[in-house]
Design a protein that fits this description.
By secondary structure, the protein is of the alpha/beta class. It is 38% helix and 14% strand. The strands form two sheets. An eight-stranded parallel sheet has the order 4-1-5-10-9-6-7-8, with helices on both faces. A two-stranded antiparallel ribbon has the order 2-3. The two termini are 27 Å apart.
Length: 356
């Protein structure tokens, strides 16, 4: 059971940390990353690799490639390309994320999205321009039978991914240190990304969200938010009054498996959104907003695996990683493990039919 695994992981966390984590990443070369991460789909060869056992450090097993993966990079933060958290996607590619996915005999494609109005930077317009493109890219990936995996600076890309999933009842499993449940009326900081989940459930930016092909608001009761601990006062009130299931990091061990099982019975498919600042501060510095008590790396990977066992995972995303804060490379390594875990979760029920 997931509950037993997570409790054991928490009890052994001190021992695991004592072992240390060996960074596998290279120093970031932005020019090299830009050459590798370019607009358009990049054709890749399929690599043969033997199946590997579970890593000693608790990382996900490499499965024998049930499905293909389309990695969609959206390297923007508040309309700025490759700045702050927008630098995360190219950095993860440069650190070997695609190669790690290919080791499990998957065919991996890569594309990068860019807004049509780069000469005029406007946060809100650019965000929804990117969402409209992302919806089409996600839908096309699914048509080809590939698992869509988004690497993004901002969480508002979730609107595009949900749009790309199209018909069927969709649920959301959202890992985040923040609620992202503000609205234009409640926010005190004015950060669009702090309204991402509220937009997904239809509480704000409804006209712009409706312009995203295929998008329909997700029912609040079909959203499970895990690890949120840094909430504005007004945002907390909105979240508490909603039907969203909110599990703090310490509650995930005993409640998440049951919530996922119930969600899997209610919906046809789910989108798994991983804002990396859900991680506990001891796991490394993810961005300028991270900190506090969150999930351990092993707990996060186990939770994603549980989602794949209990729900049809139709798409995933890794967001909000700013490599400038990841001075020892630990977060990049975790992010690559998360990418593999998401791909594995999508493989588990890759051929599953929608629930009727």
């Amino acid at each position: 059971m997931l509950a037993d695994r997570l409790l054991a992981l928490r009890e052994g966390s001190r021992r695991v940390r004592a072992l240390g984590v060996r960074p596998i990443v290279r120093p970031f070369d932005r020019h090299r990353a830009t050459r590798r991460l370019r607009v358009g789909v990049v054709a890749n060869r399929r690599h043969d690799a033997h199946q590997l056992p579970e890593a000693d450090d608790g990382g996900p097993r490499r499965v024998s490639g049930h499905g293909n993966v389309h990695v969609i990079a959206v390297p923007f933060d508040s309309a700025h390309r490759a700045r702050r958290m927008g630098a995360g996607p190219p950095h993860l590619v440069a650190c070997g994320l695609l190669d790690r996915l290919r080791e499990s005999r998957r065919r991996v494609e890569l594309s990068e999205l860019a807004p049509p109005h780069e000469a005029w930077v406007a946060e809100i317009r650019t965000a929804f321009d990117l969402d409209r493109q992302l919806a089409g890219t996600v839908a096309a990936a699914r048509t080809r039978g590939a698992f869509p995996l988004t690497l993004a600076g901002n969480c508002i890309t979730s609107v595009g991914t949900v749009g790309g999933l199209g018909a069927g009842t969709t649920g959301v499993l959202w890992f985040d240190a923040h609620g992202d449940f503000n609205t234009p009326e409640s926010t005190v900081g004015g950060f669009l990304d702090g309204m991402a989940l509220a937009t997904v459930v239809g509480r704000c930016w409804t006209s712009l969200a409706a312009s995203v092909p295929g998008f329909a608001p997700v029912a609040e009761a079909n959203v499970v938010l895990v690890g949120a601990r840094d909430l504005d006062d007004a945002e907390s009130e909105l979240l508490n009054a909603s039907a969203v299931v909110h599990l703090r990091a310490e509650e995930a061990a005993t409640r998440l498996d049951a919530e996922l099982a119930a969600l899997g019975r209610r919906v046809d498919q789910i989108y798994v959104h991983v804002d990396l600042d859900v991680l506990d501060a001891s796991e490394g510095r993810v961005n300028g907003y991270s900190g506090g008590q969150g999930l351990s790396r092993s707990e996060l990977l186990a939770a994603i695996e549980s989602a794949g066992q209990r729900c049809r995972v139709a798409a995933g995303a890794i967001t909000a990683y700013d490599p400038a804060y990841d001075t020892d490379g630990r977060v990049a390594r975790t992010a690559i493990d998360v990418a593999l875990a998401l791909a594995n979760a999508g493989d588990v029920r890759h051929a599953a039919q929608p629930r009727h």
